[in-house]
Amino acid sequence: MAEVTSSPPMSSSPPPAHVLLVSAPLQGHVNPLLVLGRRLASRGLLVTFSTVPHAGLKFTHGDGAAVAVGRGTLRFEHLQGGALWPPNEPRYCAPTAGGEMLLRHLEDAAPAALARFLRHHSDAGRPVSCVVSAAFAPWSCAVLSLFYHYFYSLADFPSNNPNKAAPVAAAAVPGLPPVFAGDLPALIHATENLIWRQALVADLRGLRDTASWVLVNTFHELERPAIDALRAHLPITPVGPLFEPENHGGDRDDCTAWLDAWPPRSVVFVAFGSLIKLSRDETAELAAGLAATGRPFLLVVRGDSNNQPELLPDDDGRCKLVEWCEQGRVLSHAAVGCFVTHCGWNSTTQALASGVPVVTFPAWADQPTNAKFLEDVYGVGVRLPRPMARDAVSRCVEEVMSGPEAAAMRARAREWKAAASAAVAAGGSSDRGVQGFVDAVVSLNGAGDD
Question: Which EC number(s) are documented for this chain (predicted)?
Answer without folding.
Answer: 2.4.1.-
